[in-house]
Specification:
Blueprint (H helix, E strand, L loop, with lengths): L3 H13 L4 H7 L3 E5 L5 E8 L2 E7 L4 H17 L8 E2 L8 H14 L4 H4 L3 H8 L3 H11 L1
Length: 144
């Protein structure tokens, strides 16, 4: 049986023809705000008066901001009315159910299945998509 998070990501990709979380957020009317946040905070998602808002720490590298955007977009789509706690530096290792789901969403969005056809090394795939190895491992859990 196909994973429900993967199904959602694939429907989004099919409909909008992009895996870019910034473009998807714009198309889905989810506001993305980059701002100077405390160094311990990568980003967070807020639902306020029917507005969905993603906050991203502007001090992060472009690659890190993209990953944070994908993760927070996962919250905006999977956990619409939940205000999420701050995404801290170690969120990829979180045990919280909604944080794990947002990480799986980011992994499915940023790492296409086709990546595993040409490459069988998680470090190469992580480098290719400029994502942490942990995200590739999350994706692998559901693939194999």
């Amino acid at each position: 049986m196909m994973d429900w998070i993967k199904v959602i990501v694939e429907k989004l990709y099919k409909k909008y023809n992009t895996r870019n979380p910034y473009k998807l957020a714009k198309l889905l009317n989810i506001h993305v705000i980059k701002m100077d946040l405390h160094e311990e905070i990568n980003g967070f998602y807020q639902y306020e008066k029917r507005n969905r808002i993603i906050y991203i720490n502007s001090n992060l590298s472009d690659e890190e901001q993209l990953i944070v955007c994908a993760h927070e977009l996962g919250h905006a789509i999977l956990h619409i009315r939940s205000n999420t706690p701050f995404m801290r530096k170690n969120t990829l290792f979180s045990i919280s159910k909604i944080e794990r789901e947002a990480n799986r969403f980011a992994a499915e969005l940023l790492i296409p299945d086709e990546s595993f056809i040409g490459y069988n090394n998680i470090y190469v795939i992580a480098s290719l998509h400029q994502v942490p190895v942990e995200l590739v491992k999350l994706k692998c859990e559901k693939l194999f």
